[in-house]
Amino acid sequence: MSVNKVVLAYSGGLDTSIILKWLQDTYQCEVVTFTADIGQGDEVEEARAKAEACGASAIYIDDLTEEYVRDFVFPMFRANAIYEGEYLLGTSIARPLISKRMIEIANIEGADAVSHGATGKGNDQVRFELGFYALKPDVKVIAPWREWDLNSRNDMLAYCDKHNIPIERKRENSKSPYSMDANLLHISYEGYDLEDPWVAPGEDMWRWSASLENAPDTPEEIELTYKGGDIIAINGKTMTPAEVLRELNRVGNKHGVGRIDIVENRYVGMKSRGCYETPGGTIMLKAHRAIESYYIG
After folding, report:
1. What dihedral do alpha carbons 32, 36, 41, 46 form, nearest 10°?
2. Annotated active-site residue in 37, 124, 209, 230
3. Closest of 186, 178, 177 to residue 41, by C-alpha
4. What distances in angstroms separate CA 294 from CA 10, 250, 297, one per listed residue?
5. I want to staple 241 with a disulfide (CB 3.0 to 4.6 A). Which of 13, 70, 102, 181 is the partner?
């Protein structure tokens, strides 16, 4: 496949930093990086420096937080969307937005291809690619995990050493060995000892929420104001969609709301164990269902 310029969904982590260099070497093409700020925290700006160091021809970092909550999270909760009875789709619902912006950037940059860092085993590859093809049917999609021969972490670290790719050796230097995905709606944990369903996650794994044992003994009452099925104010204070979710996250985190530990089915026919913290989303779902119970359709 001949490629002139590709837009890469870029987080700045190990996988996508390697992919950036691999695309340049394999396809002899320009690589434009796109990092979506959807509330995941400080890592967004860190991605800029890494993309520059890896030779990206252009770098896009866009704050999509309000659009994410307003146009994706809120409609999802209006529909009471929930997967297999428990998972509140925190990773899933962000992918269409990222795909949409990547195609917009591809059109701006005149890129003929897009690329993502999703593996060939999970659901993200399907989410991204359906979004790409729906918006630009003739776009070329490059999925490195289905093409390259970097089959282990050691292979990937060796590739980084060979090509002087600046990465943090997360497994060695970080307290968290898990594969994690975070945005304003949730944070997820997979891999490492969670691969064994008999192993309970340690308390030190959870980043956002207090345990029930450490949550306040005194309950906290909040009043949510709805308009058109969406929350527009908390305790009488009008807020933007992102501000609503941030405040509900704060309250939920404080009171130990929103933790789940599940084994779910993937689109490709595999089982996957994941742990999730979705504090604000859990409050939104329960509140919306409570409102529905007041009315006769």
Report:
1. 10
2. 124
3. 186
4. 44, 27, 10
5. 70
DSSP SS3 for 156: helix
CA-CA distance, 93 to 107, in Å (whole number)?
23
List the catalytic residue out of 37, 95, 127, 230. Answer: 95
pLDDT band at 172 (very low <50, low <70, confident <90, very high): very low
Describe the crossing of helices 14-27 and 153-163 by its angle, rounded to 10 degrees: 60
Residue 292: which residues within 8 A CB-CB, separation 6 or more? 80
pLDDT in tens, 206-249: 998 999 999 999 999 999 999 999 999 999 999 999 999 999 99
**pLDDT bucket at 45, cuts 50 / 70 / 90:** confident
Q: What ranges do the domains of the chain cover?
A: 5-82+92-173, 179-292
- State how far the Cα of 49 lies from the Cα of 70, in Å rounded to an integer: 30
Whether 169 sits among the annotated catalytic residues: the reply is no
pTM of the model: 0.92
The count of other CB atoms within 10 Å of the CB of residue 285 is 18
Q: Is 179 a catalytic residue?
A: yes
Q: Which listed residue (179, 181, 246, 273) is catalytic?
A: 179
Q: Which of 15, 37, 112, 230 is catalytic?
A: 15
11 is catalytic: no
What is the amino acid identity at position 217? D
Q: Are 282 and 250 in contact (CB under 8 A)?
A: no
Q: Which residues pair with 63 in a beta bridge?
A: 37
Would you call 95 a catalytic residue per the annotation?
A: yes
| 179-292 CATH, one of 3.90.1260.10, 2.30.110.10, 3.90.1720.10, 3.40.50.2300 | 3.90.1260.10
Closest C-alpha to 211, from 222, 221, 199, 200: 200
Over residues 88-108, mean pLDDT? 97
